[in-house]
Amino acid sequence: MIDAQSYVRQIAEEARQAASKLAIAPGARRDAALLSAAEAIRSDADAIAAANQADVLAAKDAGLSAAMIDRLTLTDKRIEAMATALESIARQPDPVGKSIAAYYRPNGLRVEKRRVPLGVVAIIYESRPNVTADAAGLCIKSGNAVILRGGKEALQSNLAIARSLSKGLSQADLPDNVITMIDRTEHEIVPALAQAEGLIDLIIPRGGESLIRAVVQAATIPVIKHYAGNCHIYVHADADLTKAERIILNAKCQRPGVCNAVETLLIDAAIAEEFLPVIARKLIDAGVELRGCEKSCKIVPEMKPASQQDWFAEYLALILAVKVVNSLDEAIEHINTYGSHHTDAIITENISAADRFVSLVDSSSVMVNASTRFSDGGEYGLGAEVGISTDKLHARGPMGAEDLTTYKWIVTGNGHIRE
Amino acid sequence: MIDAQSYVRQIAEEARQAASKLAIAPGARRDAALLSAAEAIRSDADAIAAANQADVLAAKDAGLSAAMIDRLTLTDKRIEAMATALESIARQPDPVGKSIAAYYRPNGLRVEKRRVPLGVVAIIYESRPNVTADAAGLCIKSGNAVILRGGKEALQSNLAIARSLSKGLSQADLPDNVITMIDRTEHEIVPALAQAEGLIDLIIPRGGESLIRAVVQAATIPVIKHYAGNCHIYVHADADLTKAERIILNAKCQRPGVCNAVETLLIDAAIAEEFLPVIARKLIDAGVELRGCEKSCKIVPEMKPASQQDWFAEYLALILAVKVVNSLDEAIEHINTYGSHHTDAIITENISAADRFVSLVDSSSVMVNASTRFSDGGEYGLGAEVGISTDKLHARGPMGAEDLTTYKWIVTGNGHIRE
Where in chain A do CATH 3.40.605.10 domains reside? Predict the structure, then answer.
């Protein structure tokens, strides 16, 4: 067996060749591949379910946690959802070839800034097999070859899904190497991917913070990532408290284990005495543990006192930090200091307060009177998402197909020279 | 004197505060600052010239090269050009607040993707003082605070220009710390800037390859850069040879020391016997040294034989590598293998050949029947440029004000929760 680095160079070179063929394929061919892949997933559903069953049994034998096993398990509904996501990606507008700008210069030179694929994208993820279909689908849509490295506990499921996706590619007469599912499980593969300069254009790690930090530290190629989602909801003095209550309960309890669940609640001092006892009661009844600042604990004595660490925490659990703030600006300051620049919300009926919050909170998504749970590629209408970026450069927030493109300046003259 | 790292943290924190004030200033205030700064540069022209004279005298005493001293010297014309560039930047459309997309989702949620400033940008450059005005101007336009670190041989000139720019800011009632010109010259400043995580959002090194590599290696914050400009012109079989001749001479001889000058000429075998003797004669007469492949040397025996290194070289001098290629695809392959993904041109009257070249050459700018020398922010109508990126992520090619922005997702509901 060749070493990890040589193996990665070899698959990346093959991916690169596939990418240059894909780059000149018209959008209709890429969409046809996505639609055929969706059909293949439906007709191969039994094979995918069987492969997944094998992964799940092995995971149970290995003693993986119930949450891990839930994420790994593909039900009929989840298999159908993969097919639906591919169809939804196919229906999106084609990002490739889109003109960002095109104009004549005074000297008659034609200048165009046109979207083109990045080339080869590597995606590293953990146990959720549906990421295989979503990520590969977005890469095909955007004209990129993709190298996928999923968690080893999901390998059989991922290989089965990749086989269905390959059928879609071959039916659209696109090269098989557009998708490479890595079937080697040694750890050395990850740094080798992150250091494939000149062969891989972008690496996207998805998963726990330690995986992401390892990729960032090893990487010599560009990485897009988000470390954590420490999301806030600020209830402003002029909030509609009925909306506030609905939104807070939804943002904390609907799916507490995900990055866009709320982790800190900021309540304006003007309404704290009135609103805090009400919302605290509902949250406690829903099984949420509250950790409050000094003022909050005075108003609701059942709260545990929060420590400095609580303001930084991404609990991913039914725990909520609570702080009373004296003003809109104190709320903004708190979010920009302790937050993770992911998703933060204000609840207010006051348009000036909403505008100031939107302008000054330095986060990838800023919500007004809506649950932080909406921060998601599907919810934003991107068809699916390849990840959520808390970086500011290139792509920020949920990333769809267009975020997997770059652009090229195309300048057309008629013998033009520079004077 | 405090150490470099503490100093950088202090100025970056002050810049950050200024940036948050600038972020909510309307575009008209930023444009007013640019126009006032242009006026201040004109009225302070004598002071700027005197400061520059001191720098130039010191540089001569230190024995700097004539080319270095030319780049350092500010003539009346060059001072006026700085003022004009600021006015040109002011006239550009405001990139801040521009909606990239805005739509309602089926559930009534309003989703907007809106351009916002990056925050604080650091720019490291060498001896050309006009970069001070261009870079600061583009940062003001895009709502960013900027930290400038020019070459120590240009320090007096840069400080004088920064004083004029500050007058513009204060006349528009914008904070002085929007521009910080670093007046400390020790080397430790550069890595300290490149590692100011959470305080500086982007660092742009401009200058020689060793400076850029040093920044990239030290950096823990995002870097946008270009290492080299190894630009190509390919003369296709169906080229108009009169255009080819004009363009090659311009791209090689008009200003050989810059990154968008041509370094390798590829000639299609179908026209090599006819065209190569003609263009070689003109280039040799213009003082250009030619280094050819085996076939080229057979056709024009005055050429030196090229080595493998020549295909990678950025000469920045009156030297040109010459190669005969058998096809369009061989030309594309050569450019993608040996080039620097900066700017490459095809000369052809054949529309299919032009399309294939544009699609498959993986460079930031691709030219058809125009000189590579046009690859420049001013020539593309960006008002000025903060640099040219050969990176693919975030910004590619000449970078103007819009490339110094990111975006934010703004989601507005009316009590929306996720089901």
Answer: 4-225+405-412
How many Å apart are CA A416 and CA A329, to the nearest integer?
55
A82 contacts A130 by C-beta, under 8 angstroms: yes
CATH class of A4-225+405-412: alpha beta
The shortest CB-CB distance from B411 to any of A201, A359, A374 is to: A374
pLDDT tens digits, residue range A155-204?
999 999 999 999 999 999 999 999 999 999 999 999 999 999 989 999 99
Centre a 10 Å sphere on the Cβ of residue B326 and count the other Cβ atoms it contains: 12
Q: Look at residue B212 and give its three-state secondary structure.
A: helix
Tens of pLDDT, residue by residue over B280-304, are 999 999 999 999 999 999 999 999 9
Least confident interval from A51-60, A218-227, B408-417: A218-227
Question: CA distances (Å), B289 to each of A193, A230, B92, B379, in order?
Answer: 42, 61, 41, 28
- For A129-155, write each residue's pLDDT tens digit: 999 999 999 999 999 999 999 999 999
For the entire predicted model, the pTM comes to: 0.91
CB atoms within 10 A of CB B264: 26
Output the pLDDT for position A228. 82
Residue A169: predicted pLDDT: 96
Q: Two tokens at B414?
A: 């009316």
Shortest Cα–Cα distance, B24 to chain A (Å): 7
Give A72's Cβ-side CA count (13 Å radius): 26
A241 touches chain B (CB under 8 A): no
Hey, are the CB atoms on A119 and B362 less than 8 Å from each other? yes
- CATH architecture of the domain covering B4-225+400-412: 3-Layer(aba) Sandwich (3.40)
Give A386→chain B minimum CA distance, Å.
16
Q: Where in chain A is CATH 3.40.309.10?
A: 231-374
Contacts of A119 (CB under 8 A, 6+ apart): A16, A19, A144, A145, A200, A201, B362, B392
Could you say which of A251, A396, A406 has the minimum Cβ distance to residue B392?
Answer: A406
CATH class of this structure's domain A231-374? alpha beta
Interface of B with A in 385-404 (CB under 8 A): 391-394, 396-398
Measure CB to CB from residue B380 to each of A370, A409, A418 and give the nearest one.
A409
Q: Buried b / exposed e across A246-263, counting CB within 10 Å, b at 16+?
A: bbbbbbbbeebeebbbbb
Q: What is the ipTM for the molecules in this complex?
A: 0.92
